[in-house]
Prior knowledge:
With about 260 residues, the protein is α+β, with helices and mostly antiparallel strands. Helices cover about 35% and strands about 15% of the residues.
Amino acid sequence: MGSYDIQQVCLNGHQITDMYRKYPENKKNHCTICGAETLIKCPTCDKEIPGRYMISATVSSNTIAVIPSYCNNCGVEYPWTNSANKLRQAIIVNSLNKAMQEFQSKENKSQEAILHIEQICSRFHLVVKQLRERHNSRTTLDIEDEYDVQDLFHALLKLFFDDIRAEEWTPSYAGKSARVDFLLKSEQVIIEIKKTGKSLGVKELGDQLIVDIGRYKVHPDCKTLICFVYDPEGKITNPQGIEKDLSHGFEGFPVKVFIIPKGY
């Protein structure tokens, strides 16, 4: 019947040797890794720390002995156990802090992006009017349809963002997929552009937005949907009220609606 050799471990839990009897030349008074003192016995009951299993006096198991956390004689934890627990706790806390910092960084980046987009939306009509007033009546971009709105909005986005992805396909929704107008991937924001006209009034805007939300809330890179509605002819009589009604979370999915101009 076999027996166990003795194990030598430093106070910080580094194994010096698990065959203290067989190879006494390997023993150390201090750890070569951290310099801490070493033990071969439990400090409480003086029981030797079990080392590698010896099949016979000269033949040992191929399995290195595991460093125990508690003495198998008195049950008291070894000095390195508390240090190991503290180390594990420190690693967990650091991981959680790092994850929280990354999350907060993404949140801050997204919030900053939304503020920039809101600024573009609020000044969009003033930019349109300024473009019409060119020197010597030179030709300019006139906003006649939704594509014109998209082109100008895209140009204004360039003031703040480098990675602007136009016409990204959304995941399938109700058996269909569609293109979004603009995706800010790193900011996790999708921008949908609309222009009022004969086919887009208040009712149609609300209906389209509900469909848009269904599509975009399953998009892997969308955490916020911004809908910009350009209404130069003032077809929406209560833009502030419509913005308030439509700008809220849909099942936890943030939606912001900006209708510009607002009666001027």
